[in-house]
UniProtKB/TrEMBL annotation, chain A:
<feature type="transmembrane region" description="Helical">
    <location>
        <begin position="337"/>
        <end position="355"/>
    </location>
</feature>
<feature type="domain" description="NADH-Ubiquinone oxidoreductase (complex I) chain 5 N-terminal">
    <location>
        <begin position="69"/>
        <end position="119"/>
    </location>
</feature>
<feature type="domain" description="NADH:quinone oxidoreductase/Mrp antiporter transmembrane">
    <location>
        <begin position="137"/>
        <end position="425"/>
    </location>
</feature>
<feature type="transmembrane region" description="Helical">
    <location>
        <begin position="118"/>
        <end position="136"/>
    </location>
</feature>
<feature type="transmembrane region" description="Helical">
    <location>
        <begin position="309"/>
        <end position="331"/>
    </location>
</feature>
<feature type="transmembrane region" description="Helical">
    <location>
        <begin position="181"/>
        <end position="200"/>
    </location>
</feature>
<feature type="transmembrane region" description="Helical">
    <location>
        <begin position="376"/>
        <end position="395"/>
    </location>
</feature>
<feature type="transmembrane region" description="Helical">
    <location>
        <begin position="142"/>
        <end position="160"/>
    </location>
</feature>
<keyword id="KW-0812">Transmembrane</keyword>
From TrEMBL, chain B:
<comment type="function">
    <text>NDH-1 shuttles electrons from NADH, via FMN and iron-sulfur (Fe-S) centers, to quinones in the respiratory chain. The immediate electron acceptor for the enzyme in this species is believed to be ubiquinone. Couples the redox reaction to proton translocation (for every two electrons transferred, four hydrogen ions are translocated across the cytoplasmic membrane), and thus conserves the redox energy in a proton gradient.</text>
</comment>
<dbReference type="GO" id="GO:0030964">
    <property type="term" value="C:NADH dehydrogenase complex"/>
</dbReference>
<comment type="similarity">
    <text>Belongs to the complex I subunit 4L family.</text>
</comment>
<keyword id="KW-1003">Cell membrane</keyword>
<dbReference type="GO" id="GO:0050136">
    <property type="term" value="F:NADH dehydrogenase (quinone) (non-electrogenic) activity"/>
</dbReference>
<comment type="subunit">
    <text>NDH-1 is composed of 14 different subunits. Subunits NuoA, H, J, K, L, M, N constitute the membrane sector of the complex.</text>
</comment>
<dbReference type="GO" id="GO:0005886">
    <property type="term" value="C:plasma membrane"/>
</dbReference>
<keyword id="KW-1278">Translocase</keyword>
<keyword id="KW-1133">Transmembrane helix</keyword>
Length: 639, 117
């Protein structure tokens, strides 16, 4: 695998962005879709080739230096790519799921006037995301980190004639800035401590020179985790993600479910040496992950917007991943990133297909009975729902169960939270499924008339993702189920350094097989029971969530309104800052404008007087000139 | 040097030195002041132009006088240059006056007062 082919992986989407972006209104729609999609499919093919070459060459990580980028004093930041197990797995997810979503977008966005702009932004996003995972140091990761934030902003506000959508885009961007500040401080602390940002140097120095629980390492990891909180939507910085659903549905699938929001998890796994040296940070990561998993899942229980339910579900699943990271189950979290990319992308694309058929209706109270009209969408959505609920043998079961098993070893209380969260997950997902696809149609007559299955460009990605959601779990079958867990074996070299740095943390009090069976049985039973509960409530009794106008009990109202977190943030942060800005603005109005206005008036007054001298009469000019010469002569001669 | 029968050999600086330096100074000052007054008082562009030439030549005369009294030939070279440049300047100046005349049908500079606030 030559280096030039590797460079093409991020460069192809960039080329797609440039072509589609520069030629936006002039390239015909057919060509736009082909260019945008081909760029990504080609980088997927290249990623697969790189992966095969990497495995064939004995899984030796290597660095591809491109050029010296920043050299200041002793600090040298090269621009280079790192190819190892982690970056390859991320490459495969990003380009693979990205390709499917591009194909889907051709059908989904076909009627949109900003078709070319949409594909340009999507390609730009993939470029930055690939840069993020390929970079060999924290600074390149930061470029990608900011770039994907920018593209997320652009795509959330894609329909920028709607003020609410623009506000959602701004909210996402600003909340991410808060996290980015933490990330930046983390990078600065790394530079100050290690004098380098290259992963290899930082990690070897950290492993060699620092004790477990060193305050400097704890500071660094906490700062980095603040960045991850913002990007991966964890408490307290999660409120942007549900609002981000304002963007087109393929964007929600690609950016806000499968790839960008997992950047935080990627970063923690990448920095596993540092995190393994900071057990107290890991405690915090685990607690925040668990809290987010439960909190977001409970909000999802009562939402009525099909995309909002999926958004809270994403926040909750990301919480699971962080819970796994907190228990040092890095591979298990990565496993969940992979399976989640499959089934959550599928869920969003399925929701997009439903919204497409329902003429842009997103409220599940107006849906129902769609399974006969949209058979492919229904079947794939069903598979994804089973997968996310953790029912075997679908993908979500293996990954979620592995995380829960590790959490159980680590912290029993968090495990209880995790199981509670998975009960809720199963309930809200089946509630969504039943309300959308079962029962009778509750929409308008016009919508019913218009119902249709989506075109092939949309259903084929659904089917491929459904297959992946069904069988994707088999890359990580645990030993207890007579599997060999290929994924964990593949990723284990990543933790070699962490093991030498903190060997105690990796000595697992390994669970016996019977215990593992017990845990599996509990979580599967819990998921099944809540699925049945949802079936009884929404299919047998045919209950439909009450319209907004109806009075709700106190707790219900709190959950329905997302615990008033948005209102709280609004009162605590947004309003005071706005007031402060207004005060500063009026200060500017009064003082600064007064001074500047005075100068302006003075100058224009002077000009008004002086321009009287410009009469246009040549004689007067000559006279003035002579007078001037005489004055100068007298000055020189007499004084 | 071949003697010219029509013109007896004369030492030019000696001739110039027959007249005292003060007279040259007074003459060239007078010429210069006449030039200034002409430029200031006349409105006809051609006469103003001639007055400017007068001032120029007053300066030339002064240069020549000093040159011979101090036996320094460089001022004479200087004067040649001034005359050559003045010839070019006359050509350009007259061309401008001709164009003004074609456009306005007179050469009164009081008429050209459009360039004002």
């Amino acid at each position: 695998m030559s280096a030039s082919l590797l460079i093409l992986i991020p460069l192809l989407p960039l080329a797609g962005f440039l072509i589609n972006g520069i030629g936006f209104p002039n390239i015909p729609k057919g060509a736009v879709g082909i260019i945008g999609t081909l760029a990504v499919v080609a980088s997927f093919v290249l990623s697969v080739m790189t992966f095969n070459a990497f495995v064939a060459a004995g899984s030796q990580p290597f660095i591809v230096p491109l050029f010296d980028w920043i050299t200041v004093g002793d600090l040298n930041i090269p621009f280079s790519f790192q190819v190892d197990q982690l970056s390859l797995l991320m490459l495969m997810i990003i380009t693979g799921v990205g390709s499917l979503i591009h194909i889907y977008s051709i059908g989904y966005m076909h009627h949109d006037s900003g078709f070319g702009k949409f594909f340009a932004y999507l390609n730009l996003f993939l470029f930055f995301m690939l840069l993020l995972v390929l970079g060999s140091n924290y600074v390149i990761m930061f470029i990608g980190w900011e770039g994907v934030g920018l593209c997320s902003y652009l795509l959330i506000g894609f329909w920028n004639k709607n003020t609410n959508y623009n506000n959602a885009a701004r909210k996402a961007f600003i909340m991410n800035r808060v996290g980015d500040l933490g990330f930046l401080l983390g990078i600065f602390t790394i530079i100050a401590t290690f004098g380098s940002v290259e992963y290899s140097e930082v990690f070897s120095k950290a492993a060699a020179g620092f004790q477990v629980g060193d305050p400097v390492i704890i500071t660094i990891t906490l700062f980095l985790f603040v960045g991850a909180m913002g990007k991966s939507a964890q408490i307290p910085l999660y409120t942007w993600l549900p609002d981000a659903m304002a963007g087109p549905t393929p964007v929600s699938a690609l950016i806000h479910a499968a790839t960008m929001v997992t950047a935080g998890i990627y970063m923690v796994i990448r920095s596993n040496v540092l995190y393994s040296l900071a057990p107290s940070t890991l405690e915090i990561v685990g607690i925040i992950g668990g809290a987010t998993a439960l909190f977001a899942a409970s909000i999802g229980l009562l939402q009525n917007d099909i995309k909002k339910v999926l958004a809270y579900s994403t926040v909750s699943q990301l919480g699971y991943m962080f819970m796994g990271l907190g228990a040092m189950a890095y591979s298990a979290s990565m496993f969940h990133v992979i399976t989640h990319a499959f089934f959550k992308a599928l869920l969003f694309l399925g929701a997009g297909s439903v919204i497409h058929a329902m003429s842009d209706e997103q409220d599940i109270r107006s849906m129902g009975g769609l399974r006969k009209k949209l058979p492919v969408t229904f079947l794939t959505f069903l598979i994804a729902t089973i997968a996310i609920s953790g029912i075997p043998p679908f993908a979500g079961f293996f990954s979620k169960d592995e995380i829960l098993a590790h959490v159980f070893e680590h912290n029993k209380a968090l495990w209880v939270i995790g199981v509670l969260g998975s009960v809720m997950t199963s309930f809200y997902m089946f509630r969504l499924l039943f309300l959308t696809f079962f029962g009778t149609f509750r929409g308008t007559h016009e919508q019913e008339h218009h119902l249709h299955e989506s075109p092939a460009s949309m259903t084929i990605p659904l089917i491929i993702l459904a297959v992946l959601s069904a069988v994707g779990g088999f890359i990580g079958v645990p030993e207890a189920l007579h599997g060999s867990h290929q994924l964990a074996q593949f990723m284990s070299p990543l933790y070699d350094l962490a093991k030498t740095a903190n060997p105690a943390a990796f000595e697992h009090t390994s669970l016996s097989h019977s215990e593992e069976y017990m845990l599996m049985a509990i979580s599967v039973a819990a998921a099944l029971i809540s699925a049945i509960a949802a079936y009884v409530m929404y299919v047998q009794k045919g209950a439909v969530p009450a319209p907004d106008s109806e009075e709700k009990s106190g707790l219900q109202r709190a959950v329905y309104n997302k615990y008033y977190v948005d209102e709280l943030y609004d009162a605590v942060f947004v309003k005071p800052i706005k007031t402060l800005s207004n005060i500063l603005y009026s200060f500017g109005e009064i003082f600064i404008d007064l001074i500047i206005d005075a100068f302006v008036k003075l100058v224009s007054l002077g000009a008004k007087l002086l321009r009287k001298t410009q009469t246009g009469s040549t004689g007067e000019y000559v006279f003035a000139m002579v007078i001037g010469i005489v004055v100068i002569l007298f000055w020189k001669l007499l004084l | 040097m071949i003697p010219n029968p029509m013109m007896p050999e004369v030492n030019i600086p000696a001739v110039i030195q027959h007249i005292p330096l003060q007279s040259y100074l007074i003459l060239s000052t007078l010429l210069f002041v006449i030039g200034i007054i002409g430029v200031l008082t006349r409105r006809n562009a051609i006469i103003i132009f001639m007055s400017i030439e007068l001032m120029l030549n007053a300066a030339n005369l002064l240069l020549i006088a000093f040159s011979s009294y101090r036996s320094d030939p460089s001022a004479q070279v200087f004067v040649f240059f001034i005359m050559a440049v003045a010839a070019a300047e006359v050509a350009v100046g007259l061309a401008i006056i001709v164009m003004i005349y074609r456009n306005t049908r007179n050469t009164d500079i009081g008429f050209l007062n459009k360039l004002k606030w």
